[in-house]
Specification:
Number of strands: 5
Distance between the termini: 89 Å
Oligomer: single chain
Amino acid sequence: MRLNSRLLRQPHLLGNQVRWHTSRLYERLGLLPLLIGAVWLMLVIYWCVVLRPDLADMRLQQQEIQRQLSIPLPVIAPENADAEQKLNATEYQQVKALFAILEKHRLQAKESRYQLLADSKNSAADQLALEIPLLGEYTQLYAALQELGAAMPLQVDTLKISRIAPDNVQLTILLRVTLAEGQP
């Protein structure tokens, strides 16, 4: 199909030419190849109109992120780092000892969350609350809790135990303890 300037000036003639060439292709090739070609053409148009600008925007955003990441962070002064530290040395030693006892009794700690509980009367008597998900057996848990109670000042707030499977001895345990400030 050749386009000439006369067809561009008269759009109804251009429509007639397109319709004539489409019917000619339909007679030569059949319906299925024309439908496949039409779907392919629509996908190419969609890619050019919708996806290409998005890709360009994403590249610009990536370049901006890389530029921001190339800027070095300011150095934190040591006195500011100590002020932002939430656990003091005693609390850190208590937490370390707690996890050592759990590991000694083959209880696998997945992760832990902690929260400092402030005492309204005495700010020096703050307590540390820990929430520890564990995997292990009941006998190991019992032995670990007895040793923890004897080794450090702690209070067991919550203990949730469930089985992984009915025929399995392995338990999933959620242990919530509160450590009182004291010697580990």
